[in-house]
């Protein structure tokens, strides 16, 4: 009986983790979509779509707070009482500008237990339809997590967050997974 109870708790815990992953993916997508409207109006009149990064990050922060109750402290989103997660979420962002979006790009990020930093950004060959974006997150244990590749269709704002959350029961393993949002700039 105790065995079945433990298995049931493990299944419920895994289901909660998947729900959190889905909700955070949607939250990142909505926030990043809102941020990508922060384009430079002067360059836009010349036909160049370029991101005003400080303004974009402010718009991203506003939407993370409005939709999820997260406030930013440096490179980390701190949850409020009504947020979907209970632990802070480190994130990293990368802007692929109008001169580079056709090139392949490999981003390698390192998570050390508290922060997520871009370790390396390697540009590859150009593709007429847009570059292939490959993201790898290296965990504090050295495990390499490769996210599904994405094709860029224009200048893009890339945001990667790493969720490392305690389970609802201490005997269960923690929930750790990366979430990515890639949004093309809107003109």
UniProtKB/TrEMBL annotation:
Protein name from the UniProt record: Uncharacterized protein
Source species taxonomy: Bacteria, Bacillati, Bacillota, Bacilli, Bacillales
